[in-house]
Structures are given as structure tokens and as C-alpha cells.
């Protein structure tokens, strides 16, 4: 059923010209959220607990260290997916979304990182989970988000000579006119 809607704190901590909210007080009651904040308070830029699902907004520069902490110290050994959301025309334009699963704890957490539209780039988490390889390639192929230090960042769904990224909101849905 419905979850608890968090009380948002005032916006603070500008990052790349964008202001994020810090971890709301009521999320500190969530063990995973509190652990991540204790691990690196600068990494957490906001979050919510809604419909019994925890979502944490993470600073893009901190994603690899937070993922490593969640896997090795908190038991989130399974990366269920990496995907993206295009918030066009908003800026930062893209959200890179990670779904993590702790089988032992029977818990899940969603991490979101906001990246700008001009040059969407974020560090690859393949050093933490090898399974991120194909998920990141899919986000690269369909959204144009580059993953730094990815072992094989190339198209995975579209032909190699395809122009553009078809899941971007500004991609022409009617195709090119001849």
C-alpha cells in the first residue's frame, strides 16, 4: 500500500550549478540510507521512501564508491539493472538509475545520479559489478550517456552506423525524411 512520504529539507549543496536536497531526517530511520550517509555524507544529495521503496540521489562523482560500499559492506550483491531517464528539457537532463538487491536482507535500493545533457558522462560501475557492462552499453546506445572506464563501450542494440540515440526525447520519432 502507500508508503511514507518524506519531509524534504531546504535545498543546499550546489553541485555543477545544480542544487540538490540533502537526506531528509525521516530517511535516517532507513538503515541503508543511514549507512550510506555515515559512509560518505557528501555522496547523498537527497532521497525518498515511497511505496516501501528506498531511492537515494547520489552525487555522480561518488557513484563507484557508494556502489562498492553497498555491495561489500551492506550486502547488495546483485545489480538488477542500470537504466536512464531523459528529463528533457530540464537540466540536468538525464538520470542514471541503478537498482540494487540484497538477497540476504531481502532488501532493494534504487540509486539515481543526475548528469547534464550537454555532455552526459558518469563513471562506470563495472569495477563493482561485471553485470553492469551490458546495462551501461544499453544506456550509452539508447541515451548517449558515456560511462568512463567502461571496458567495451559500444552500441549493443542499434547498428554500429546508426546516428543518434533513439530514447532521447528530442530524437525524431518519424525518422528522417527523404
- Helix-and-strand structural type: alpha/beta
What is the highest CATH level, the class of one domain? Alpha Beta
Q: Any idea what the radius of gyration is?
A: 17 Å
Which sheet architecture does the biggest sheet show? 5 strands, mixed
SSE run: EEHEEHEEEEHE
If classified by CATH, what would the architecture of one domain be? 2-Layer Sandwich
Poorly predicted regions: 1-20
Number of strands: 9
Strand content: 25-35%
How far apart are the first and last residues' alpha carbons, in Å? 51 Å
* Order of the strands making up the biggest sheet: 3-4-7-6-5
* The CATH homologous superfamily of one domain: NADH:ubiquinone oxidoreductase Nqo5 subunit
Roughly what percent helix? 10-25%
Query: Mean of residue pLDDT?
Result: 88
CATH topology of one domain: Beta Polymerase, domain 2
**Helix count from the secondary structure assignment:** 3
Amino acid at each position: 500500500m502507500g508508503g511514507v512520504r518524506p519531509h524534504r529539507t531546504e535545498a543546499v549543496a550546489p553541485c555543477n550549478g545544480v542544487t540538490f536536497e540533502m537526506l531528509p531526517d525521516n530517511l535516517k530511520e532507513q538503515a541503508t540510507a543511514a549507512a550510506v550517509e555515515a559512509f560518505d555524507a557528501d555522496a547523498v544529495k537527497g532521497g525518498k521512501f515511497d511505496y516501501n521503496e528506498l531511492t537515494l540521489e547520489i552525487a555522480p562523482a561518488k557513484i563507484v564508491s557508494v556502489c562498492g560500499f553497498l555491495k561489500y559492506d551492506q550486502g547488495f550483491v546483485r545489480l538488477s539493472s542500470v537504466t536512464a531517464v531523459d528529463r528533457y528539457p530540464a537540466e540536468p537532463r538525464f538520470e542514471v538509475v541503478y537498482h540494487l538487491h540484497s538477497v540476504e536482507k531481502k532488501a532493494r535500493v534504487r540509486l539515481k545520479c543526475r548528469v547534464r545533457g550537454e555532455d552526459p558522462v558518469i563513471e562506470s560501475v563495472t569495477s563493482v559489478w561485471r553485470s553492469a557492462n551490458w546495462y551501461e552499453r544499453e544506456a550509452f546506445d539508447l541515451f548517449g550517456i558515456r560511462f568512463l572506464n567502461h571496458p567495451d563501450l559500444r552500441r549493443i542494440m542499434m547498428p554500429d552506423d546508426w546516428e543518434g540515440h533513439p530514447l532521447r526525447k528530442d530524437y525524431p520519432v518519424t525518422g528522417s525524411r527523404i
